[in-house]
Structures are given as C-alpha cells and as structure tokens.
Amino acid sequence: MFATNCACHLRCTDSQCENAKKICKKYEDNGCRYVLLRGGKNNRIATLKRVPTQQELQQFDLSAYPKSFAEMEGSKWATMMRDSQSNASRINSRGSFRSLVEQLGPKGGNLMREVFELGANSSAKHCGSRYAATPAVGSGSVPLSKQDREDAQQAFLSRGIALVALSYHTPMTLLNSMRSWKQSGLLDMVTERVAILNDPLPQEVAIALEHGFRIVQPRDVPGSKMSKSNVWTIGAAFYYALTQIQSEYLLFLENDFKMDVLSSPQNTMMELVGGAALLDSGIEIIRLNSRRYQGCNTFKSCDHHGIDLQSQAPGDRLRNWFAFYCRDRQVAAQKPYVSDCSSEPDYRCFTSWDTNWTLNAVLVKKGTMLTKKYPMKDNKSFKSIADIGLDQYRKQDGFESAMVFSIPWQRWQVPICISYNGLFIHEEIETSA
Q1: Where are the alpha helices (H) located in 166-305, listed in sequence order?
Q2: Is the C or the N end of the chain the one with fewer CB within 10 Å?
Q3: pTM for the predicted model, two decimal places
Q4: 13-23 pLDDT, tens per residue?
Q5: DSSP E strand boundaries for 56-169
C-alpha cells in the first residue's frame, strides 16, 4: 500500500477505526504515522497519512534551499524571483503544439490528420463531434468545410498547454514531482509554468523558481476568495489557475502527481497533443493518471465492487469508469457507455454519468471551463464548472462533494476521456493535514 506512497482512504469498521490503525501500524516502515477521520459516527472514512522515511529525507534533502524568506533576500533566489516576475508574460514557443507535432514527425502528422480530417473516431458515440464527418443526429453540429478544418488545425497548432502546479507546505513532495517533470522533458513541452503556492514555505518558493515556474500566491490576486490567509482550496485554485494563464489549455497538477518517467518524451508529446485535440473536438476533461499506479490498488481490479453499469442511480455509477481500463472484461456491458476514440495515443471516452468528479491530473480547455454553463439542481440557475469550484472556496473537499452529491454532475453527462496508459503517478513524500 505505502510502497506506492499513496494517501489511502478506507471505511472504518468500528467507532475507533481500529482497522485503519492496524494498517498504518503494518506500514510504519513505509512512513505511515497517523490517521485522519472524517464523516459521521456510523459512516467514518479514514485517511492514512505518512511522514518521510530516512531514505527519503536523504533523497529529498532540503538543506540547499533557504530556511527563511530573510535568507532569500540578496541571494540568487531573489534574483530568480525578479526574473520570474519580469518574464511573467513570456510564452515558451517550444511548447506550442506546432513545435511538438514537428518533433513527433510522421506520428504527429498522422495524429493531426486523424483529428482534423477524419474527425477522430467520428462514428463513435463519445468522441466529440466538432470535426466529425457525419455529426451525430441531434448534436446540432454540421460538417465543417475543408477550409474550416484547415483553419481550425492552424489555430490549434499555434496554441499550447500551461502547466499549473498546486502546493501547500509539502516541499519534499513538490521537489519529487518537479524533478520528475524536468527529467521526463515535460517542462519543455508546455508554454507556461505556474506554481500556485498556498502560504508557501521558503523551500517551496525556491524549488519552484529553480524549475522555472512563475509563482502565484493567493494574496497576489486582488479580491480573491481564500479559505484562510493566503490559502486557496482546490476549487478556488482551479478557478484562479484558469484566470492566471494565457494559454488556452491547462494541465492542472497537485504537487503529489509526479511524472511516470518510464513514459518516453515522444509518448508524452503524443498524450498531450492528442488529449488537447480531443478537447478541441468537444471533449471537456482529459484524465492523465497513469494506469500503472492508480490509487491504492482500486484501479487495478476489473471486478471492483463499486462498478455497476446497470444502475440508473447516479450514486451507484460513480466508479464505473474504473471498468473502462479493462477492455477484456464486461465488454458487452460497457459498450453503450464508453468509446475508443484514439489508438495512438490510446484514449477511451465516456461521460460524467459514469464517474465521480476529480481534479487528479486533468487537462482542460480554459474557455470551456470558464464559459460553458450547466443547470443547477433547481434547473433555473446556470453555472460553469469553474464557477462551482470558486463557490466552494471555504472547504477543501467542498468542490468534489458539491459536484458529486449536491448538484450532481452525473446528470449533465459531461464528455470525458481517460488516457488508457496515462502519464502521472500519485506519490506523496510528506503529507499536510
């Protein structure tokens, strides 16, 4: 369990949650130290929390980074901060889709042809309809002309992805992830790098600067909605991430999502360009979790107890998307709900009818998140997904809870794709309460 450094959640079997405590004790050598409890007396959920092991303390030694902000003054870190602020509007042209497609060679050309000329898998139900040669009946779309498709492709190629990382008092975890993003080449594949640092420690600031990130603190954004001084919840951070970038596409990563360094640079480029192209085709959320390390083994079982493809109750369908990683199982049952939309990179697409809400390693389109409105439960008011996130600025789990339970978002049937192989691994070194 803790060999993969995930923060595990499990249901308590008694009032004292002894089952969680026993598991934490079992994995003490892997860093488990304490258990956080939430929920009511008869419905408690435990989150196992870890601290760095001795090996990790050596591997992620922070002694080279400043221990106070006073120590940063007049040092190289102060110079790096000034340079970062003065270059805030600079775009990395090497990270444009045009540059990435050129680096991909024939594979890049084939990918563009598949999306913009062939309409991806335009005969499939869940693959986006903007470029479909024969749009689905009732979609309201009409086939684009050859010139319109060419213009759309050129506009797409001129754009790129902003990587926004969110961190709060976990510098070793941030260092682990940023090292992996650099080692894998990811940082050269994006047009912007932004670090949202909640009430940051000086080490977090220095780590972000060292990796070429522009730093945004909540207090830097006039009038922003904070849960406490200089702190944004994840819902608010997602909203402000969208408003703080120039790029049209956002790769939103909490600091405990490191790169799967076994993914080659070419494969990473294909995943990013292919995912963004699907967003351009009408998909609204791309999920990029690596299927090698998803949660605490929950994704690895094709017979997960939470999968119910037959139920018409939204609450019963929250984990159906786990099954979509399993092509060889439940194929007939899956067929109405999931489509294979791209073979290289490998994307499977479905809707929010079959999934919980999560911001774990997602790629989205800024304009869609900020402007597309969905009906609230009263069917009278309408809000964007980003607006709902901002509404939940007071509680860290408010965004997820609202999307799944009080709205719920399943009934909107938002188009979503998962990368079948994925790119990012959830790995915490130290955890904040």
Answers
A1: 171-183, 202-210, 234-244, 265-281
A2: C
A3: 0.91
A4: 888 889 888 88
A5: 161-167
